[in-house]
Amino acid sequence: MGDGSEFARILAENERYTEAFDRSALTAAPLRGIAIVACMDARLDVEETLGLRTGDAHIIRNAGGIATDDVIRSLVVSQALLGTDEIVVIGHTQCGLLGADEETIRHRLTATTGVDLDIGFGSFADLEASIRASVERLRAHPWIDARRIHGLVFDVETGRLRELA
Amino acid sequence: MGDGSEFARILAENERYTEAFDRSALTAAPLRGIAIVACMDARLDVEETLGLRTGDAHIIRNAGGIATDDVIRSLVVSQALLGTDEIVVIGHTQCGLLGADEETIRHRLTATTGVDLDIGFGSFADLEASIRASVERLRAHPWIDARRIHGLVFDVETGRLRELA
Question: Which of helix, strand or coil describes residue B150?
């Protein structure tokens, strides 16, 4: 990594993408009325894993797939402005935040940069509990449609999604 | 939308996905050392548009593709824990937040739900200025590697990425 060639490659790949591009008739409202909240993890290709096509769904991702205030903001925009009414929250096995030691990370960053900041990283001790907590936070939010909110675990070794009861 | 069949379809699609799944050897560190920050918009398939494969990149997405505190948290995790060192910020044409009237949305939600909340939606008046502001915020952050941060506009009508100077 880090040789600076990635950005040039992305622009070249995009040239190829535009040659076959046929989604110009889509509008901002997702065709399937669904919003996905998932971890940023590189092993999870949300569209492929869930069988979604371009235009089908809003996809919201952060470190951990956690229902932060920013995710709630995004979901309110998704539902109130763009008509989605179903939410799927996806965590995954082998997440970098599972059991991460926040103090060690903070000390290392402070030592490296010379700047101490009070940033929580969102680490968690139990994957299923973390997903359930996100689902519950969304269900309890007064501006979010709570009728259809699902929690799923993605297994990075098999590609399989498992629904949380 | 909203007939509840989407979730069942997703699980069925995932069954098919697992049959050909061959990425079990990937680890959490993205192969190309890159993190993407993009809008949640359904018309933007980040992997296809940028020519990324499963395992290549962290993908962070929210309403607007804005560098919020939660995006900064995710990027710090991406760089400090998982070794990425290049960031691409992507906004897009016809964004639902472009020129959105926050007061109108808030009043409507308050009237519909009976609960008044002070949530900003992240609307913006100028797409390029919004992307540039995100890039600048990331470049100025003491815990983010500022050497390779790019800003791009995605055109939803052509699929083309355009670099901001």
Answer: strand
Token reading at A62: 């952060």
**The CATH number of domain A26-163 is 3.40.1050.10:** yes
- Hey, is the C-beta of B142 within 8 angstroms of any chain A C-beta? yes
| ipTM confidence | 0.96
pTM given for the model: 0.97
Q: Where are the domains of chain B?
A: 26-163
Region of residue B99 (phi > 0: left; psi between -120 and 50: alpha; otherwise: beta): left
pLDDT tens, position by position, A111-126: 999 999 999 999 999 9
Q: Which two tokens stand for residue A106?
A: 């903070």
CB B43 within 8 A of CB B92: yes
Nearest Cα residue to A66 out of A100, A110, A29 = A100
Measured between beta carbons, the chain A residues lying within 8 angstroms of B159 are 14, 17-18, 21, 23
Q: Which two tokens stand for residue A11?
A: 């622009």
- Determine whether the interchain pair B62/A57 forms a contact, defined as Cβ–Cβ distance below 8 Å: no
